[in-house]
Each structure stands twice: as C-alpha cells, then as structure tokens.
Amino acid sequence: MDEEEGKNELQPVKTNQSIADSFSVPREITFVIITCMSQFITQANVGICLSPLDIVGASFGLSNGPELAWFLAGYSLTVGTFILVFGRCGDLFGYRRMFVIGFLWLSLWSLVAGLSVYSNHILFIFARVLQGLGPAMLLPNGLAILGATYAPGRKKDMIFALFGATAPNGAIVGAVFAAIFSEFAWWPWTYWSMAIVSIVCAGIGYLVIEPIRHSKPTDNAFVSLDIPGAFTGITGLVLVNIAWNQAPAVTWAEPYVIVLLILGALFLAAFFVVEFKYAKHPLIPFHAFSADVSFVLACVATGWGCFGTWIFYSWRFLLDTRGISPLLASAQFSPPCVSGLVASCVTGLLMSRIRPAWIMCMSLTAFTLGTVLITIAPVHQTYWALTFVSLVIIPWGMDMSFPAATLMLSNAVKREHQGLAASLVTTVVNYSISLSLGFAGTVESQIVHGDSPEERLRGYRSALYFAIGLGGLGLCISVLYTARSYMKSPRSAPSSSSSSSSSSKTAA
Fold first, then answer.
1. Major facilitator superfamily (MFS) profile domain: which residues (predicted)?
2. How far apart are CA 34 and CA 141, in angstroms?
3. Close Cβ partners of 380 (under 8 Å, ≥ 6 residues apart)
4. Which CATH number fits domain 23-226+280-504: 1.20.1250.20, 1.10.10.60, 3.30.70.260, 3.40.640.10?
5. 117, 162, 176, 286: which has the fewest Cβ within 10 Å?
C-alpha cells in the first residue's frame, strides 16, 4: 500500500473482460469469501449487540431500554453517516487500501469495546460508535471491488446476490457466538474475537484483492473529497441522531437535547448550501437527481426504519417479555438465514421480469406484515405461530428492497453518477435504522409509566406500532411510485439482466 502500488493499480472492468479471469479457482473463491465478509461482518456487529444486550447492560448497571438502544443506534449511526465519504476515498486512494483499513479499524475498536468492561458504559458506547467507521469503509469499497473485478454477466449477478444474502447470516452468526460467550464464558470475548477475525480478514484481503482505483490520483484531496460538504453533512446527521436517541433516555425537557437538534438542523442547512452553490465535486450531486430518487429513498428510509425498530424490539420481546435465554433467542432468529437466501435468489430472477417498483412494493409489504405479526403475538403463544412467520417474512423486505432500490436509482441518474447509487442506498439504510430507534424510543418513553413487565410490554408494542406506521407509509409511497412509473412509460419492458448487472457495479 505504498506509492508503487498506486502506479500499478488496475482499472475497473468496463467490458466483458474480467479481472477475475486471471484468478486461479482457489484465489477466486477466497476473493469472493473475503469480499462478502465485509457485509457479513457489518451485520454480525448488529447481532453481537442484540443477543447479550441485558447481560452487557447489567455489567454496566444499565436496565433502561432507551440507554440500551444506544448500543445498536450508535453503531448504525456511524455506518450510515460515513459511507459516502469513505466511498469517495476509495475512488481516490484505492478500494483495496480502504477495505484493509476498514478491517484494521474495526479490529482496534472491537478490542476497546471488550476492554470497556473495566471502565463504564460510556466507553463501550463510544467504542461501538467508532466501530461503525470500519463497516462504513468496508461496505462501499467491498461493493466497488466486486463491481470493478467482474464484467457484467450471470456470474456477477450471482456473486452480488451472495453478497446480499450474507447479511441475515452475519447477524445470526454474530448473535449466536455473542450468546455463547456471554452465557458460558465472558461477554468481552465476543468483541475480542471480532478483533481477531477482523485482523485475519485484513491480511487475507490484502493478499487476494487486486489494487483497483476508480479515479485518478489528485493533488487537491480537499476539493475532490468535498471536505466542507462532508463536514457539514456528517455533523448535521450526527447531531440530529444524537438528539433523537438521547431524548428517550433523558426526556426532551433537557435543554441540551433541543440545542443538539437545532444545531444539527443548521449544519444540514449549511450542507445543502455548500453542495448547491460552492462544491466543485459535491458529495451528493443533487442537480443530477430526478423526482424518482426522492420516491426511492423515501421507500428505503421508511422500510428500513421499520426494520430497525422491529429487530431491536423483537429481541426485547423475546429476551425480556418471554424470558428466554440469549442462545435460544438466537436459535429462534435463525429462519432469516434460509428465508433471506431464498429471497435473494427470487429477487435476482424477478429483476429481469417485472418492474423494480413492484419489487419495492413487495418489500414494503413484507416489512409491514412481518412487524404486524410480532406486534400482535401473545406473550405465551408458541414460537411456531406468529413469531416464526414474522421471522420468515421480514427477510423478504430486506433482500428485495436493496437490489430494487439500487437498480431504480441507477435508472434515475446519469451514467457518470452510477457509482453513487449503492452507496446512497446503503447510507439511507443504516441511518434510518439508527434514527428510527430514537423515534421509537420517544414513543415508548411517552407510553410507559413504571417498570413492571406489563408496562415494558406496552412500551415495546407502542414502539412496534410506530414501526407499522413507518412500513405502511413506505408501502403507500411505493404504490404511488409504481403508478407514476406506469404513467411515465406504460409499455416499457422490465429491466433486463444486463441492466441489473450494470447497476451491480454501483458502489462508493
């Protein structure tokens, strides 16, 4: 990763010739596995937080739901807010370089998260927040590496489907190992193990991934990275998110919460001014976006906001209300592994046969219906009734929405902005998960009066009702978008697989 590497960097695939054609079979298998690990590890860090949530909270003397929500919200916050910036860094400085740095960074802060057991919950949350910067480097650059290494075709489509299918598997594997360490050993080993795995992935990634750069090196990184836009945008998003996620824990009566929210809004306003008037290389080229982009991102935000609330409060329902162990809860959360894989394959087949807008409608239906089922599930009902069905349905929302949204954005922007699509969708996905927990926590805090099991259940269900509202809103938006797509081009054929392949190249 020195200057000589920069001179020898390969260019992304633009024809049917594939960089992967030069790989031996063992190297290509290792390459695909290690690149997909970026998605797997990202979601595993969600799972390792959820299953031992009460055990970790108890070690810090915490039992308050809104405070525990920070363990997940802090991580998703930084994953969502930094993806676009680190995607741009990959374009400028090399995808492999950013990919390896992402794993090394994740390893460092996983180590700190485990060591926080000797300190307090503030250090743990701080470490979780900084952990999120690692996946923010891994996701866009992992997608970019795959997109640049493989030429459009069926192999590329299948590899991207595999990349998406690792998400639910990563979350479940993370939850299982976290439960095992927490119940039978010591919970910090969950994070120390993550540090070891990340170090190994960084080393293997450096060996098997070709150094690829999308853009030519520049002497003026300040201009190319759009530092003013990145600073104002990230600061605004972080402050708004902190305000919403902190308010349920300390109430909106705290003056500093209101101050943070106002400052966040001002920074976001400054971001739009910088992007529209002053940035030569804007982080988000709003001028290139059509109205379709707003529809797509609104669907993604509401759907994944619904999912973020569903996953946190479903775990609370199983662990706290039903009182099952973290390991059993992890086992009960295993259906998404199979269901998500099936959903990814079906989505890959549907993308070339029907309009992506219809797939988005199906996705929002799955998000909403899955949340309804867990919300109305009786406490003492068998797992195999509503809970199991909810866990089977929800992955269809996850694994249908991301590829559909990426393709829809790809079709809505000009060719020179294709690389923005996947990064923008990933940003909205992760930020929506984090922000929705703040919204849901506010709803919960207004409903709950006391700490009895009945009151806590009322709080969980009130938060899930909010999630149903988000999913329903997204479903309405997706229906409107579908109708609009028919009004614009009533006879247009569904996107071809080649279009899907082209969109698969989007990253960073």
1. 31-486
2. 12
3. none
4. 1.20.1250.20
5. 286
* Identity of residue 414: K
Residue 212 DSSP label:
B
pLDDT tens-digit profile, the chain (508 residues): 444 444 444 444 444 567 877 888 899 899 999 999 999 999 999 999 999 999 999 999 987 777 888 998 899 999 989 988 888 888 788 889 999 999 999 999 999 999 999 999 999 999 999 999 999 999 988 888 887 888 777 777 778 777 877 888 888 899 999 999 999 999 999 999 999 999 999 999 999 998 876 555 555 665 677 888 889 999 999 999 999 999 988 888 899 999 999 999 999 999 999 988 887 878 887 776 777 788 888 999 999 999 999 999 999 999 999 999 999 999 999 998 889 888 888 887 887 788 888 989 999 999 999 999 999 999 999 999 999 999 999 999 988 888 778 777 766 666 555 556 667 888 899 899 999 999 999 999 999 888 888 999 999 999 999 999 999 999 999 999 889 888 877 765 454 444 444 333 333 3
Cβ atoms of 431 and 77 within 8 Å: the answer is yes
Local structure of 485: helix, strand or coil: helix
Place of tokens 């024809």: 15
What tokens were used for 337?
A: 């592994």
Strands (DSSP E) contained in 126-268 are: none
Rounded Cα gap, residues 429 and 302, in angstroms? 9
Largest CA distance in the chain: 64
- List Cα–Cα distances, 317 to 314, 454, 461, in angstroms: 5, 11, 9
Helix (H, G, I), strand (E, B) or coil at 333: coil
